[in-house]
User: Fold Glycosyltransferase from Acer yangbiense.
Amino acid sequence: MEGQGGRRRRLVLVPYPFQGHITPMLQLGTILHSKGFSITIALSQFDFPDTSNHPDFVFLPLSNDSLYRFNDPDDIDRLEELPCIIFDSLMYSAEAVALHLKLPSIIFRTGCATFALSFYVCPKIQKEGYTPFRASKSLELVPEFHPLRFKDLPVFKLKNVDEFLQHVTTITNLRTSGMIWNSIDCLEQSSLVQLCPKLQVPIFLIGPMHKLAPAPSSSLLEEDRSCISWLNKQTEKSVLYVSFGSMATMEEKEVAEMAWGLANSKQPFLWVLRPGSVRMSESVDLLLDDFKESVGERGCIVKWAPQKEVLAHSSVGGFWSHCGWNSTLESVSEGVPMICRPFSGDQKIISRYVSHVWRVGIELENVIERGEIERAIKLLMVEKEGEEIRQRAADAKLELQLSVQKGGSSYNSLNELVEFIVSV
Ligand code: UDX
Assistant:
């Protein structure tokens, strides 16, 4: 994509400095580089992934005092040519930089479209008098937002609903030329029908992005590849992969219930126990020593895994997940059915979609308890009752494959995006 003077057009990509946001932004960079653009990643120095994995990108350390803001136009002025800025919607301070320098800008939404739709639904239900939310309402369906219940909304448990809605208003009022989404038409059709008229800018759904162009690892933690050798020794679709992403934290009691639920299920498992993911964890090591002895070779525990490779491995037959959007897309793309244990943010909405819209998984509804866990694992992985879920997951994989192939919705949308960037 040539700009002035016959050079490639430069794009400055501004990720939000967390794993679940850096990964899709670097994937977007890889895809757009393959389409002929030059890519600069603007990020606080503290959160750089291993830059040697991305020799085609220029990394621009931001000079801000805050990790979560990008508000110094000089950072961009240092570049030789005028770029187009693509920023994560949570780095909304970039809007002012783009306006100040009169540069075109595009928002990148790393989450799902249905979560974005909730940004319009939440203020409406507040106006209609549903807040503060009463516990007795938690299981009622939200008007015009089925099958979501009040308890699935990101505001439901918040103490300061007004603060959240203020944040939502800032994001929904951003003035940019367009919007990119790591999602797929076929997964979020009904939400998109409601959302698109509200956005008033062209939108481009180009997910699942990791299937559009193979991106190198962007992990902030070191991946333990020993789990791949362990997976190689397991039988087809026998392993339950367990991981709750990069941010969720649990009480020790929940870890104990998980451990004994896994042990009692008799199913092989690969469990990512991220450092810092267990609150007040003095005795968790003792607990895990007993547990490891009891499960022996049937279990493999690591601190961080090469997740995309794990989910694509033929031995993996299920994923017990917190339903972060990246994890969910990675699982659905590989046809791996899910057990959903959402924590916060968009995860409850995604969990509801996995279990009640796409029906490729089951939700752990109640308090996390070993008997319930054991039943869920058996249903998902082996029992006849789970067969339809497993089949739908396999079908969804094929549908997503079609979307990134020539003529598919994400393939076409990417080509439209490229033309759009050249034109703005
Ligand atoms: C957060 C939110 O939780 C999520 O809901 C939101 O959509 C994005 O920001 P996170 O909690 O980290 O992200 O979850 P997720 O979106 O699933 O991203 C985690 C990423 O880390 C995935 O790409 C996954 O492949 C990767 N990962 C996770 C690993 O590479 N190894 C691991 O062991 C665990």
User: Anything to note?
Assistant: The chain has two domains: 4-113+158-216+407-423, 226-401. The chain is about 40% helix and 15% strand. The two ends are 13 Å apart (CA to CA). Residues 387-404 form the longest helix (18 residues).
